[in-house]
Amino acid sequence: MRKILGLLLAFVFSINIASAESINKTLTKLGVNKSAVSVSIKEVKSGNTLYSLNERVPRNPASTLKIVTSAVALDTLGADYQLKTQFYKSTNNDVYLKLSGDPLLTSKDLEQLMITAREKNIEPKNLYIDSSIFDEVEWGEGWQWDDNLNPLMPKFSAFNVNGNVTSVFVKPMSNGSVADVYTKPFYPYLFMNSAMTDYKKENNLKFSRFVEDSPLFSEGARRNMLVVSGDVSKIYSRTIPVFSPSINFALRLKEAIQSAKFQYFGNYAKAKLPTKEVYLIDEISRGLPPILTKILKTSDNLAAESLYKHAGAVWAKKSGSIQNSTNMTSAYLNNLKISSDDIRIVDGSGVSKNNLMTSDFMSEFLVYKASEKDFETFKNYLPAPGEGTLKNRMLYFKDNIRAKTGTLSDTSAIAGYITSRRGKVYAFDIMITDAKTTPADKKNVEEQILRNVYINH
């Protein structure tokens, strides 16, 4: 019996060596610097390592970090948790709008709250907004200042509404004249507009923040200024983040009040909801499934940051902050007895280049998640080939892979689960930080490594 067991172990060991050699040959053939690649692949059932390379070298995980931060948030809040935007009335005839930082809140949601208040014949003296769920920090540590026009990286706040973005439109006027520039929905950007109408040219427009330290404008004005230049021959639109989520929220709330014909014409002030002598008018409840779908399938950064911060607020029983959220994560990992010595988390989305993680940590984390009773539900939030961030990737594997991708400049990463042809399930993490390799080549390396696992195991 021992002899048979020994032969079996030797056979398995020889397969793993063959697999390692095959993957190493693949990396060499593709001309990738092996020192820039980290890989950890573990069988889910046993936790045994199938293949590893630089698995304990800390690298930037990019958006694969969302696997960890969303899993921690889900564990803290529970699968049935609801983010609630609530509208209250006090016995003093004041109304309070208590925010949750719901990343999917829309103008229509605000209008529905106002319609309910109107139907209940509420005519308040004052309207207060309770934004205490979050602190005042609206961008992540290490986020790049020159990415502040990227619609995928809006500021996140208790005042989230409509994704915290607006659209800038550039409309050609008479030939040779300055084009018309405006926002829709309205947001009070100040435009330094030198975009010219030229019907003989294709659209060639440039957008940038006004960064000149000019005495002609106050600091606040400079922060809210956009420079638009170039040529335009047909109407053009571009989605950009709003500079101030709270200003954007106030505008959308005013529109909702007017649209609902709710009888309130005053201003808004920030104040905490009283604990007594208030009653609920109406609320907008948002379950976690649509938020987790946005985070893990389409890699939505606003949703990731907001949910992570909200969970940290619930865990700490105080206003949400990145410190509360990272403390929550440390406590979660300590409870699982997973070492966090080689990782650093500074945001909820993976946008910051200050985040650090090892492939060994991620694959171990994924193996643990596979042992939980809600594993299938969590796994199904990850994109399959043909959907989300895998819309045009990993099609070869059909339904045998679920994975979260991550991309930053010079960085490509992918992590998740793969079922081989023999039916074995593996947790994997691949991170490539090579400035000399194109993004397409990095993705090809990832796929070739995973094909090796799928075919040979």
Overview of this protein structure:
The chain has a domain at 13-78 and 290-456: Beta-lactamase (3-Layer(aba) Sandwich), CATH 3.40.710. The chain has helices at residues 2-29, 65-77, 107-119, 219-223, 245-260, 288-296, 301-316, 322-336, 359-369, 375-381, 439-456; strands at 37-43, 49-53, 82-90, 94-98, 126-130, 165-171, 180-184, 190-197, 204-209, 225-232, 236-241, 268-270, 278-287, 401-408, 411-419, 425-433. Residues 1-18 have low confidence and may be disordered. It contains eleven helices and 16 strands. The longest helix has 28 residues, at 2-29. β4 (94-98), α3 and β5 form a beta-alpha-beta unit. It is globular. α1 packs antiparallel against α11. By secondary structure, it is of the alpha+beta class.
